[in-house]
Amino acid sequence: MSPSSLPPPEAAAAQAARTIALQMLEERGRGAVLVGVALARRLGLIDEPVERAISALRKLRNAFAHSAESASLADPVHRSRLDAVYTEARANPLWAPLETALDAQPVSTHGPLEPALRDYVLLITILVAFLEAAAQQLTPIQPPVVMGITGFSRVNGSTPAC
Question: Which one of 9, 34, 79, 111 has the fewest CB atoms closer than 10 angstroms to its CB?
Fold first, then answer.
C-alpha cells in the first residue's frame, strides 16, 4: 500500500516516518543519535538550553570515554565546553541552595570538592530534578486512536482524526 492510498492520518505519519528515517540514514551511527536529540527539541519536549546542556554532556562523555590520559573537568577544553551551560544553569532557582548544601559538606578523604566537579554535580542534579518534576506533572493521555506498527487503531469505538 503506497502512502498516497492511506487515510490522511496514516499518510501524514508515513511521510513523517520516511523523512525521519532518511535523515537518520544520512547521518549514520552517532549522527542518528544527534537527530534524536534534535527531534526532542523540535517536538517541544526540551527547550534550547536543555538541548545545549545535553549536547555538552554528550561531548564531555565522549571525550572522557576516549581519553587515553586521566581526564578532569577542570581541564580548559572541558571547562570551556561547559561554561555556557553553567551560566544558564546558575539562573535556575535550585542552583544557589544546592551549591550552599554541597559547600557545607565536610571535606572527604579525597580532599575538598573541586569547583569543576561541584558545578558538574549541580548541573546533573538540576537536570534530573526537573525531568523528574516534569514526569510527575504529566498525566498519560488517552488518545482516541493509537498508533501501532501496522497503523492506527480506534480506541473505545472512536473514529481516527483526519
Answer: 111
